Amino acid sequence: MLLLSLVLASCFPARPRPTPEPWQPHEFLIGLRGAPPPKSDAYAQAAAAGFNVIVDYVGPEALDLARRHGLKLMVAKIGLDLATFRQAEGRRAAAALIERFRAHPALGGYYLGDEAREADFADYARLADVVRERDSPRPFFLGLLPCDAFVGPALSTADYAGYLERFIATVSPALLTWAYHPFREKGEDRFYFENLELVRRAALAHDLPLCPTLRASVWRGMAPLGEGELRGQVYTALAYGAKGIAWFSYWGAPEGGRDGIVQPDGTLTERYRWVAALNAELRALGPTLLRLRSAEVCHTGDVPPGAARLPTHALVGSVEGGAFVVGLLDGGGTHERYVMLASKDFRRGATATLTVNRPCRSIAWLDPSSGRWQDLPIRADRFQTAVEFPLPPGGGRLLRLTLQP
Hints:
Elements (H helix, E strand, L loop, with lengths): L1 H10 L17 E5 L6 H9 L4 E3 L7 H6 L3 E4 L6 H4 L2 H14 L5 E10 L4 H15 L4 E5 L15 H12 L20 H15 L6 E3 L11 H13 L4 E5 L21 H21 L2 E7 L16 E5 L3 E7 L5 E8 L6 E7 L3 E8 L4 E4 L2 E3 L4 E7 L4 E8 L2
Parallel strand pairs: 1-2, 1-7, 2-3, 3-4, 4-5, 6-7
Antiparallel strand pairs: 8-10, 9-12, 10-11, 11-17, 12-16, 13-14, 13-17, 15-16
Helix pairs in contact: 5-6, 6-7, 7-8, 9-10
């Protein structure tokens, strides 16, 4: 038996895994999860709300429709799922379909699954290798479990940082995405910022885009969401360096008790209007955010688990007027620094007074309504510069600090 194994190994040597080509988004990803049916009016509504990619269990038959409405599609239903791929016919079909559709202009990538268990990492890596061999460097979407997933078959370890590292080492993902759904009725939200920080560190260490899945729908055990909660998820994610976001769930599912952004009969909810407005802001901020790199994230007010308090003697010395997330972003310039400031008060507006421990020539904010930098009035002396501005509930501002040489 051993001799036979050696002969087979010599005749059919193991193929080396393809070396992943790094993928970086050219456009800020604004994805929808829980896709509508592939109908023209439904896709038109999604495009009108500012989405640019559909990330869901949708097959290649929707590619032409997506192209017609200016959308990209993370294609599924081609055999790149664990159950189908374990069969030889499923593997052949997946490879054939990639060859058939990889030149389609609406193909944005491949949807492999969600809430990846560590026990399945090796199988997911084989799925990813098929994509890399035939359509590199087009990305694939594979969602991770959140850091508060139960310890057992799902995560199989309480070491979330290790879970992330083993996922990256085994699967070689194109991006890091996960879903931590805050604002639950039981109040179990205390690890929301820790999850953001742990994934941020892993993304920086491996030069991977960070793309969280945000909650927009309501289902059992989840509290209803207001506009401030939706906005707060967006701007806290941006403060942690997100290069894209995905909203869950776009389409309602009464059989699953889920109330989406759009109802199954096509009725637009109030959340559709709120999400569309936020997507418009992301489109305006996105080109600048894509070229910035997260440097540090600190908190004022109550400091949640896994987070750091804003130090007194850092570049940003203080932010008064509420509780905030302070995301420091590096743009590579000598005299420019960037700050994404996000309010942690999702129910009330705030007036933030930010003090920089350096004299600044100017402080500007990127106005999403115009897409242009607007100078703010500053108070400056030889050592510090202060600026004041209002924020809506859960709101944020991207600031550019131009320091005195």
